[in-house]
Structure formats: C-alpha cells, structure tokens
Amino acid sequence: MAEENETKKLLGFKASLETRLREIDQEMTDIRTALEEINGLLVTTGFRTFLSPTISTPVHVPSPEPENLEPDGETTMTASPSPPPGDEEMSITGKDGTQLGTIIVEENTLVFIPSEVFQFTTDIPPFQSFLLERVLDNMRRTDQERASNGELEPQNILEYTVETDGDRISKLLITNFGGERRLRELNSSLRWTLDKMYDKLRED
User: Fold this and answer.
1) Residue bearing the bigger pLDDT, 68 or 151
2) Mean of pLDDT over the chain
3) Mean pLDDT, to the nearest integer, of 126-138?
C-alpha cells in the first residue's frame, strides 16, 4: 500500500513537472516572437537610440574617428555624414559563431556575399518579407520621397539587386546606401536575417 501511494505521488509530481515544462516552452515561444517583432520595429524606425540623462550627447567632429566597439561587441565605424572612404570588409556570423557571409563596403556601395557552405535561397524566411520588403524597400521609398521634396538627388536613391545562381543567393548588391547610420542598420538587418535563415536550414 505504501509503495502504491509513493507511485501515485511520483506520477503526480511528474505530471506537474510536464505541465510546467509546457508552460515554460510557451513562454519562450512568446518571448522569441516578441523579440522578433521588436527587431522589426527597430529596423523600420531607424534604430533610434534614447540616451539616459546621465550620458552626455556626443560631439560631432568633421574628421573621421577610429573604429569604436559597440555595446554588443561588434565593431563599427564612428558615425559620419558621408560613406566611409575606401573599402571595408565585415563578416556576418550566426549566434553560434558560424560565418554566414561577408559584407564588402566600397564607397557608396554595399556588397553582401553569402557563405558558399550554405544553400541560402530567396524563398527562405525572412529574406524576402523582412530584409527586402521591410528594410530595403522602405529605405528606397524614403529616398524617393526625399528626392521628390528636393532633399536628395535622384541619382542617389538607394537601389538593390539580388543575384542568384540557380535558386541560391550569390550576391546582394546595394548602391547608394546613404551613409554611416544606414550602414549600421543594414549590417544589423543582414545579421538578423541570415541568422534566422541559418536556423531554418538547420531545422530542415
């Protein structure tokens, strides 16, 4: 009889743990969904940074500054009103450190080349729905509006081209990306997009 009661207790404890585990799984799913939505909103609103009262506003200087280390550990160039002179190459890595591609900046042109190790295609989410439609198309519409208002020369409107080899993305070419702030946005958007695509490939 004692053994039967002990078994019932263990079964009840097991059931409660399984219920709690399902609740935790759902909470994690909700948190991931919320983070994805926040990332999307940050991109569409231009990654506006709100400084606390204890942080002084940085003084803008006309001459280029050395590279700074961002809070997340990624190295970016100090903001300037014009695109960086010369060429610059940056790696795109996943959360686990896997290299997913390379960004090459050449004056006002950004070239993204995916790693040949992975079969990144345009139909893998969120490449089309997020990177192209929500980020690049939004930037282009903003430039078109500025050009129509006389704030931007028409030849400086952002344009992009996706080159493919069969189904595989071989290159993403972005011209007139528009300066340092845009470069940081594109860098972050590409990292987020490729990391999600990488997760999709590992799930298959």
Assistant:
1) 151
2) 77
3) 96
Long-range interactions of 45-50: CB distance < 8 A, separation 24+:
46/181, 46/185, 47/181, 47/184, 47/185, 47/188
Q: What is the CA radius of gyration of the chain?
A: 23
Average pLDDT, stretch 97-102? 95
Read off φ and ψ for residue 114, nearest 5 degrees: -65, 155
Q: Give the position of tokens 């704030």.
A: 151
Burial class (CB in 10 A: 0-12, 13-18, 19+), 101: buried
Do 94 and 180 share a domain, yes or no? Answer: yes
Place of tokens 């028409």: 154
pLDDT digits (tens, 9 = 90+) for 41-58: 565 544 433 333 333 333
Q: What are the strands, taking DSSP E only, across the chain?
A: 68-69, 75-76, 87-93, 99-106, 109-114, 159-165, 168-175
Instruction: Quote the domain boundaries for residue 152.
Output: 83-203
In a domain, 20, yes or no: yes
Task: Quickly state the pLDDT bin for 107 (edges 50, 70, 90).
Answer: confident
Q: Say if residue 34 is in the same domain as residue 116.
A: no
Per the structure, how many domains does the chain have? 2
Q: What is the pTM of this model?
A: 0.58
Amino acid at 84: P
Q: How far is CA 176 from the centre of its chain?
A: 19
Does one domain contain both 92 and 160?
yes
